[in-house]
Structure formats: C-alpha cells, structure tokens
C-alpha cells in the first residue's frame, strides 16, 4: 500500500505538465482565428479579448507567462485600433509576420506539420486533451482512485485464483490417506495442497482426537479467519468506488464557481465564456463516473469469486467431518 501511495504522489507531480499543452493550443487557436476570420466589430473584438483572458484563467495557465502577456497586449492594441475607427483588416498583428515567414520556409516543414496534426487527432491525444480541459487537480485525484483501485483489484483477483483448488480431489486424497496411513498421512496431503480449503481440512484433522462437536466448532472458527483473508482489501475498493464520483462532483461544483468568477471578472455573460466553464466542470463528473463503473465491475467479480470459494469451503468442511466420523468408527 505504501508503494501505491508513493506512486500516486509521483503521478501528481508529473500530471501538472498536462496543463501546458492546453495553454499552447489555446494560443495557437486564437492566432489562427485572428489571422483567418478576425472580428469586424468593436463589441466582438472585446468579447474575444475577455473570453481569452477568462479561459486562460479557468485552465490554470500562468497569467505571468510571456505568451499570455504578449497576446493580451496584441488584443488590447487591436481593440484600441477599432475604438479609434480603424478597420479590423487594416490592423496587423505582430505574430502574423512571424507565422507567414515560418509557413513559407520549406515544403518539408509543411508535410511534417500535417503529419503532426494527424497524430494529434488520435484517441490518446484526444483523451489527454480532455484530461487537461477538465482541470489537472481534480482529474489527477480521480485518476489516482482508478490506479489504486485497479491495483487492489488485480491483487485480489490473483490471490483468489491462487486460493481456488479442486476440493473433490483433495477430499478423495484425504479419504485414501486415512484408509492407508491414518491421520498423519491425511495431514501431509493437506500440507502439500494450497488454498483455504486445505487449511480448514488440516485444522480439522489436527483435532481429530476430540469430539465431533469440537471439530465442527474449530472448522467454523478457522473458516471465519480464512474468509477474512479472502475479503482483505475489498473495503478499500468499495471506498474508491464511492470516492471517485464524489471527487468528480466536487470538481464540477468548483469548476462552476470558477466559471462564475470568470464572468464576474469579465463583466459580461458571453455564451462562449459560460460554455467553456460548464464544459470544464462536467468533464470531472464524467471521468469520476467512468472510474466508478470500471471499479464496480471488478468489485462484483471479486465478490462473486469469494462467494464461490466460501461455498466450496463449507461443502468441504461438512464432507471432512463425515470422513473423520467414519474413521473413528473403524
């Protein structure tokens, strides 16, 4: 468990990097929009400037970054030029000249950029994009729940598969050992067999000299111990199933609060501003529900496997008591 927590802490430190591609994409999209279809009216230009500042803040990007300061100054100059009556198409952005020079550089550079764009449309990059859009903080917390929950599920599944055994074959060997070599030979068969069923049979054979009532009580008590070992860690899995959607809902509420804060700062309710904040808030809820569904499927499988092993243990214990009773009659 300590290793899992250490892995989670390392994951938190590295996931802060995922916010950077979103900020860069926001800048590139804005540059492309201003170069191809820039707003022609003063109010539209003001809305573009306010939306950019609000989305930058909502995404958790650094407001002191040189790129943000440069783009904010460019937008401010653009808005001031339109306020003074200059047409939108007559204004020249500083980044236009740089980008045009880069585009005319060579044919090979164009092909490489197209290949990179095709790669960015893959499922993995789309998933990382949505992860960054949902906010690195809460999305990382939900991701940690998924990783820890899956680790516990895999550990339990491996343990339960190793604990499963052929009880009928074991009881047959015990019966043959009792007939040929006595109790000690039957104990040796149990020691050579892995699983909780063999452990319960060994516990019953250890008290074969006592009354059948005491043997049954001993088997029942040791069966409870084995059941506790089978169910070890399942409470943590159910905890992560409950926490994941709760963290998602909390991220949604905090995201909505941030959206309203951005509206208050902008002083205007624009559809793009509200939609961006709501989208970011709802992504955490979706991610939390997906994590809970995945863990719930594994949890139900583990519980069903435990029930099968417990039923097998109970049947085997009843058969063992009958074998010991028949052995004592001889």
Cα separation of the termini:
52 Å
> What's the story with the biggest beta sheet?
none
Structural class: mainly alpha
Strand content: under 5%
Helix content: over 70%
What does this structure look like?
This protein has 14 helices and no strands. The protein is mostly helical and 330 residues long. Helix 1 (2-15) runs antiparallel to helix 8, helix 3 runs antiparallel to helix 4 and helix 9 runs parallel beside helix 14. The protein is rod-shaped and about 115 Å long.
List the defining traits of the structure above.
0% strand; 330 residues
How does the SSE layout of this entry go?
Blueprint: H1 2-15, H2 19-36, H3 42-58, H4 66-83, H5 94-103, H6 107-120, H7 123-133, H8 136-163, H9 167-180, H10 183-191, H11 196-206, H12 212-230, H13 234-266, H14 271-329
Brief summary of the model shown:
The protein is mainly α and 330 residues long. It is 83% helix and 0% strand.
């Amino acid at each position: 468990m300590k290793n899992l927590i250490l892995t989670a802490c390392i994951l938190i430190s590295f996931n802060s990097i995922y916010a950077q591609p979103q900020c860069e994409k926001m800048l590139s999209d804005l540059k492309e929009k201003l170069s191809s279809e820039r707003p022609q009216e003063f109010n539209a230009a003001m809305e573009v400037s306010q939306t950019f500042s609000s989305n930058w803040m909502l995404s958790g990007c650094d407001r002191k970054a040189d790129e943000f300061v440069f783009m904010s100054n460019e937008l401010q100059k653009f808005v001031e030029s339109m306020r003074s009556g200059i047409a939108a198409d007559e204004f020249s952005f500083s980044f236009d000249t740089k980008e045009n020079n880069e585009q005319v550089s060579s044919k090979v550079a164009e092909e490489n950029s197209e290949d990179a764009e095709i790669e960015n449309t893959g499922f993995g990059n789309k998933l990382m994009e949505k992860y960054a859009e949902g906010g690195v903080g809460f999305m990382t917390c939900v991701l940690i729940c998924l990783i820890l929950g899956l680790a516990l599920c895999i550990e339990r599944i491996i343990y339960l598969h190793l604990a499963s055994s052929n009880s009928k074959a074991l009881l047959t060997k015990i019966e043959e050992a009792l007939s040929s070599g006595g109790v000690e030979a039957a104990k040796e068969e149990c020691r050579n067999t892995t699983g909780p069923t063999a452990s319960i049979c060994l516990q019953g054979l250890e008290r074969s000299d006592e009354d059948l009532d005491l043997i049954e009580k001993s088997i029942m008590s040791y069966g409870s111990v084995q059941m506790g070992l089978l169910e070890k860690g399942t409470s943590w899995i159910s905890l992560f199933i409950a926490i994941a959607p709760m963290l998602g809902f909390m991220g949604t509420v905090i995201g909505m609060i941030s959206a309203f804060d951005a509206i208050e700062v902008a002083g205007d309710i624009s559809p793009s501003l509200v939609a961006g904040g709501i989208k970011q808030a709802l992504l955490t809820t979706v991610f939390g529900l997906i994590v809970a569904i995945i863990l719930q499927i594994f949890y139900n499988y583990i519980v069903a496997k435990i029930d099968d092993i417990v039923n097998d243990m109970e049947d085997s214990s009843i058969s063992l008591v009958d074998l010991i009773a028949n052995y004592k009659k001889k």
